[in-house]
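We were asked to recover a plausible sequence for a given structure. The inputs and outputs are reproduced exactly as logged, with field labels preserved.

PROBLEM: sequence recovery
POSITIONS: 115
GIVEN STRUCTURE:
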């Protein structure tokens, strides 16, 4: 369809059905999955020691956290890796939440999905 637009210029409109193949191509290129965060070495979680492990130790073991925050005045760090399938494939989630007092681990929680 063609009509005159701003200042008399010819404007061509794409047919709505012509967009579908492009959308399918883009959807296929993203692999039908969404990823949040990045992988971290989960086998190192057992090395964390309450009141001993420092922020510096964790940076060396896991890299930069995905998120930082504060809980009741204490610093918190969170590492996440979520790979979520959009079309019925396997979803994989893992997260490590650490709470600090005086630059040392006060508590931590490691969560993961069970296949």
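RECOVERED SEQUENCE:
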């Amino acid at each position: 369809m063609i009509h005159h637009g701003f200042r008399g210029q010819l404007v061509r409109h794409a047919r709505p059905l012509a967009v579908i193949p492009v959308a399918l191509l883009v959807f296929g290129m993203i692999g039908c999955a969404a990823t949040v965060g990045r992988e971290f070495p989960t086998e190192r979680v057992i090395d964390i020691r309450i009141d001993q492990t420092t922020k510096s130790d964790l940076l060396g073991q896991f890299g930069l956290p995905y998120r930082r925050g504060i809980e009741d005045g204490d610093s918190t760090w969170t590492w996440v890796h979520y790979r979520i399938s959009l079309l019925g494939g396997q979803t994989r989630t893992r997260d490590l939440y650490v709470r600090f007092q005086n630059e040392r681990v006060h508590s931590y929680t490691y969560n993961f999905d069970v296949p």
